């Protein structure tokens, strides 16, 4: 067993401030490292596309090819495949969402950052609300106010089943979809951050342990950190894809002629 004294010697033990960091400036309480990383993620995406398309060529450069490939992946593989012919007008939003989340997620394995802003529930919640208001607006625009409420909540089922099905469908369409969209991204990035912290700091704790048996295990702990870092990169890309795919799926359901 690792003693409390040994744990106290571990540099920078994890605390609540890892997920709820204090303000960087007293004069700007809204400016935390998470909000700073969000601005940085947006800047990375914007600058990348501005530079890649600064001088577009018929035979694309490597940067232009990469930018076109990323946008084409979302446009063809998500917007068009999931939503259909109407999906092309949502491709810019979906591509921006995918790349912004991807860059923010990858921050979890970048040295000296090592945490994704999406590990704070506020930021996935705001992106989920953006998607929520978008598909509500599209639904009301296409079907009308009462028409969309009926479209979203009323299933083509016998009348005597409606009292049971209607509250379930309404809860699913107007509450659970945005809530689960935010929680899925938050929970995965939060869990990944905590796992990396546990194995990294656990290695220091084992190395400083009094027992000679525990010291070599610190190498295993750090090896797990390296393996989990590659796994976290996979999760970062997967969660960006899932969030964007579900956004497209909700838009497709909203724009469909039938439930």
Describe this structure in words.
- It is found in: Cell membrane; Membrane.
- Pfam families: ATP-synt_A (PF00119).
- Its main location: membrane.
- Belongs to the ATPase A chain family.
- The protein has 259 residues and is an all-alpha fold.
- The protein has one domain.
- It is 69% helix and 0% strand.
- The chain has eight helices and no strands.
- Helix 5 crosses helix 6, helix 5 packs antiparallel against helix 7 and helix 7 runs antiparallel to helix 8.
- It is globular, with a radius of gyration of 23 Å.
- It starts with a helix and ends with a helix.
- The N terminus is likely disordered.
**CA radius of gyration:** 23 Å
> How much of the residues is beta strand, in percent?
under 5%
Distance between the termini: 58 Å
Which structural class should the secondary elements be placed in? Answer: mainly alpha
Number of helices: 8
Please state the average pLDDT score.
Answer: 86
Q: Give the total of beta strands.
A: 0
Model regions low in confidence, pLDDT < 50 over at least 5 residues: 1-11
Membrane topology: Multi-pass membrane protein
Main location: membrane
Organism: Dactylosporangium salmoneum
InterPro entries: ATP_synth_F0_asu, ATP_synth_F0_asu_AS, ATP_synth_F0_asu_bact/mt, F0_ATP_A_sf
